[in-house]
Write a structure and sequence with these properties.
Layout: E1 6-9, H1 19-34, E2 38-41, H2 55-65, H3 89-101, E3 105-108, H4 112-124, H5 147-155, E4 161-164, E5 170-175, E6 179-184, E7 192-194, H6 202-212, E8 217-221, H7 228-238, E9 244-248, H8 262-268, E10 277-278, E11 285-286, H9 296-304, H10 319-325
Parallel strand pairs: 1-2, 8-9
Antiparallel strand pairs: 3-4, 4-7, 5-6, 10-11
Helix pairs in contact: 1-10, 6-7
Bound molecules: glutamic acid.
Length: about 325
């Protein structure tokens, strides 16, 4: 590979880091170290309503306890910082405006009430409301208003969002774990990229930052697979080279049905967090593997085998051995119990 490997773990500080998140961080770390690359920690905190006090410190403590430290991130400034999205706030709008300029995005002035009415009308017809190529011409946006009116509305301070206008085509994508994927982009809605509160949404900030931080491989949980097409279209619209993508299998409940939750752990008597966590609001305490008496080496060994296997009989690995043995080819595509 000609370009250097740069991967990132990009949690949102919305609570304690679930072991699924630690597994994502671990696989990023192993991949980076295997390829002499860089492991970046980026805190995705653009949604201030979901911000939880202490969650960022918890994430960092958990990575440190597991001995999977990041090379660049909060407190370890590199060339691509700052590494907290809230500190990068001022840069995102220009990117959204660039997309408008390119015809790949537009201003939308629809009020919450108007959208609610559209949703109810669709529900009455037993349909799901999607704002997309089928109906965007029925709404109040810069595709239906004159440019004079658009300017006037912006100048007088009307609320607006910026929505993406996906190109209609069959999109060919490749995931390192799931291999070739094709999607008809007419199924994608006109996602909001930039909100009326002046903040980017997850999708815009995530793609802009991955590009800006020179991320070569996006390795993340399968719950983000449905966003991959939108992200690839965003790269195309910006005219940027897309990184490689690898979506890791979910960590499932012991029954194999559905994602492992804190409730499953509580019911069956095991932790789903690496460290103990005290909820800052309710004061509720959740147990952690560390306090349960597990060694970090054990935790890492357990997590490595959730969704990956070395293809040999060896079951006990040190972190260094994992780095040597790890490859994305040996990550399974089905969920791990
Ligand atoms: N902030 C997202 C999360 O919390 C990151 C998803 C991604 O890695 O792109 O999972």
């Amino acid at each position: 590979m000609s370009t250097s490997v740069r991967v990132r773990f990009a949690p949102s500080p919305t609570g304690p880091l679930h072991i699924g998140g630690v597994r994502t961080a671990l696989f990023n770390y192993l991949f980076a170290k295997k390829h002499n690359g860089t492991f970046v920690l980026r805190i995705e905190d653009t949604d201030q309503n979901r911000y939880v006090e202490g969650a960022e410190d918890y994430i960092i403590s958990a990575l440190n306890w597991c001995h999977i430290p990041y090379d660049e991130g909060p407190g370890k400034e590199g060339d691509c910082g700052p590494y907290r999205q809230s500190e990068r706030k001022s840069m995102y709008k220009q990117y959204a405006l660039d997309l408008i300029e390119k015809g790949a995005a537009y201003y939308a002035f629809d009020t919450a009430q108007e959208l609610q009415t559209a949703r109810e009308n669709a529900e009455a017809k037993k349909e799901t409301f999607i704002y997309n190529h089928n109906n965007r011409n029925d709404f109040t946006n810069s595709l239906t208003l004159s440019s004079y009116e658009v300017k006037e509305r912006i100048n007088r301070g009307d609320d607006y969002v910026i929505r993406f206008k996906p190109e209609l085509k069959t999109l060919h994508m490749f995931d390192e774990i799931r291999k070739g994927i094709e999607i008809d982009t007419s199924l994608i809605d006109d996602k909001v990229l930039f909100k009326s509160d002046g903040m980017p949404t997850y999708h815009l900030a995530n793609v802009v930052d991955d590009h800006d931080m020179k991320i070569s491989h996006v390795i993340r949980g399968e719950e983000w697979l449905p966003s991959m097409a939108l992200h690839v279209l965003l790269y195309e619209s910006f005219g940027w080279e897309r990184p490689k993508f690898a979506h890791l299998p979910l960590i499932l409940k012991p029954t194999g049905k559905g994602k492992l939750s804190k409730r499953d752990g509580d019911k069956m008597g095991f932790s789903v967090f690496p460290l103990e966590w005290k909820d800052p609001k309710s004061g509720e305490i959740s147990t952690g593997f560390k306090q349960d008496g597990f060694l970090p080496e054990t935790m890492i060994n357990i997590l490595a085998f959730l969704g990956w296997n070395p293809g040999t009989e060896q079951e006990i690995f040190s972190l260094d051995e994992l780095v040597q043995a790890f490859s994305l080819d040996k990550v399974n595509s089905s969920g791990a119990k």
